[in-house]
Design a protein that fits this description.
It comes from Evansella alkalicola. It is found in: Cell membrane. The chain is of the alpha+beta class and about 270 residues long. The protein has seven helices and nine strands. It binds adenosine-5'-diphosphate (ADP). Adenosine-5'-diphosphate binds next to helix 4 and helix 6.
């Protein structure tokens, strides 16, 4: 509590009482803590690849360069860590843009089916390398109102996760299903799954069930935070069902038409 006090003085200049105002600042404190945690997380996440880049460069300069095998090994690590750093900075900038007050979606009529097609082409190679199959089923007309660029980001993050967290020979099925007022997108995998305990925290920034696995798959821990924000901006409902060792199902329900209050910003751009 934040407490302010003021005396009540009577006409006879005597102290009659004191007014105390108790201000509940629990929410403010929580917000402040979240901000602090975020800065600490970002610093940590940035520091890890930089330390590794510095270490391997110094080792190379210190003589390892003369050994052909070591040179190749260390340069490969340096290239991978630079890429990680690049994705992290990219995701951080995206998240800060999406969370910013100026952020606006560029609404238009679009076909979800075409966006999913593009995403599957992008991720085909990654799935193939693990012999993971990518099936796509469409039922009905998948036209909705939304921001195609942002929806592609959402779908990439979810399908990319499905590929990352599904071991060799697994299966991923993407489904689009038209309902009366919505179009449902489902991404189902036969991967490692997520326990009930972890599910509520999944969409937090930097939350990972297994940090090492996420790092290995090139994850930044920000993908689902981005998904959450963009889905909320589209007024889409997101649900996750999962069973450890069996697989995971992400379901997004998109409204075919945007809410009236979203229409005010029709012609503005972000
Ligand atoms: P990351 O970059 O680590 O993948 P995300 O925000 O995209 O970060 O996801 C957060 C965490 O949720 C992941 O680290 C992973 O532990 C878990 N996760 C996301 N999608 C799946 C999935 N399809 N199967 C199992 N775990 C998943």
């Amino acid at each position: 509590f934040d407490v302010h006090g003021a005396p009540i003085i009577g006409n006879d200049h005597q102290l009659k009482g004191i007014v105390l105002v108790f201000h509940d600042i629990t929410e403010l404190k929580k917000l402040e803590q979240t901000r602090k945690d975020f800065v600490a997380n970002v610093s940590h996440e940035l520091k890890t690849p930089v330390t590794s880049l510095k270490g391997f460069t110094e080792t190379l300069l210190g003589g390892a360069m003369d050994d052909e095998e070591l040179r190749l090994k260390f340069l490969t690590i340096i290239a991978k860590e630079s890429e990680r750093l690049e994705s992290l900075i990219h995701d951080l900038l995206e998240l800060s843009k999406i969370e910013g007050e100026q952020f606006q979606l560029r609404w238009q009529k679009l076909k979800l089916e075409s966006i999913v097609d593009e995403v599957l082409v992008m991720l085909e190679e990654k799935a193939l390398q693990k012999n993971v199959s990518l099936e796509f089923e469409v039922n009905g007309n998948t036209t909705i109102e939304g921001d195609p660029y942002r929806l592609k980001q959402v779908i990439i993050n979810i399908v990319n996760n499905a590929v990352s967290y599904t071991p060799e020979d697994g299966e991923i099925t993407v489904r689009l299903l038209e309902e009366t007022e919505t179009v449902i997108l489902e991404v189902e995998d036969t991967g490692i799954g997520i326990s009930k305990k972890e599910l509520p925290r999944l969409f937090e920034r930097f939350y990972r069930v297994d940090r090492a696995r996420s790092r290995n798959s090139g994850g930044t821990g920000l993908g689902l935070a981005i998904v959450k924000h963009l889905s909320e901006a589209h007024k889409a409902k997101v649900t996750v069902e999962s069973e450890v060792g069996k697989g995971t199902l992400f379901r997004l329900e998109f409204r075919k038409e945007r809410y009236e209050d979203n229409k005010e910003n029709e012609d503005q751009i972000d």
